[in-house]
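**User:** My hope is that you can spare some time for a protein that puzzles me. As I understand it, each token names a local backbone shape. I would be glad if you read both lines and explained how they fit together. The protein I mean follows directly.
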Amino acid sequence: MKIVVTGSLGNISKPLTEMLIARGHAVTVVSSDAKKQADIESLGATAAIGSIADVAFLSSTFKGADAVYTMIPLSFTEPDLGDYMHRMALNYKQALKEANTKRVVLLSGWAADLVKAENVEYLFDGLEASITIMRPGAFYTNFYQSMDLIKGKGLTGKFLTLRYSGLGTLLSGKTGLLMGNYGGDDRIVFVSPKDIAAAVAEEVLLLPEGKTIRYVGSEEMTCNEAAKIIGTAIGKPWLKWILLSDKEMLQGLKMAKLPEKLAETLVEMQAAMHSGKTLENFHRNHPKMGKVKLADFAKEFAEAYHKK
């Protein structure tokens, strides 16, 4: 089969490409970074260098493909995350329609039907194609974004720096903390990008009628149980996951100068996880869990943690 994979050589797209090539499929990988071309070709895939904002490029790339895997990378520079995701989804839809693509696998999120800004799934309605929507849980790789906080530097980087009254005192001189407006004893389904890739690799070869939804997870546990696994791997078994209120989280994001609408969307996503509704939806669909345990990922995380 001829299969197009978007997402460059990201946490899902790279292992997905490797799996598909190992099974004898012809794979084209879409990347906006020309520097990735050699790496893509070294896997045995064809590189298509261009932007998902360019409908003509997408249409040309999708033409003749038996199946297309589509994903919209999360952007922390767009002032309105919902508007950005809707624009990119409509670009995909137009390109898939022009290319007459018959099989589409779309990466979504397990809170997509609960968070208005994140929900672009309905925009693909009306396509004359077999569409499967992948709704994975919370990525293991999200822990990398909290590395500075765990080291006692505050929650920094592209998310936020929590240094204001109350939370500033909490963080002062302490290490071994995770934070969010979900956490503590909230039960969460975590997922390895490798397990998502394996599920997508299965789906692109199928041709169900109309639109189907597949939830993907690797392991379910409380946030504090997850924190202990990560903490033990890095020599901090006391690691805790502090639950913030929505107001505290939003204030921190705004103080970090994130655009207001983006901050509100991030808070809404995490609030849906804290509410338990995402977990209810997950169990209602009886998904098959993946193979990669958080303890396996924790070894990779520890290696990166001690190098930083």
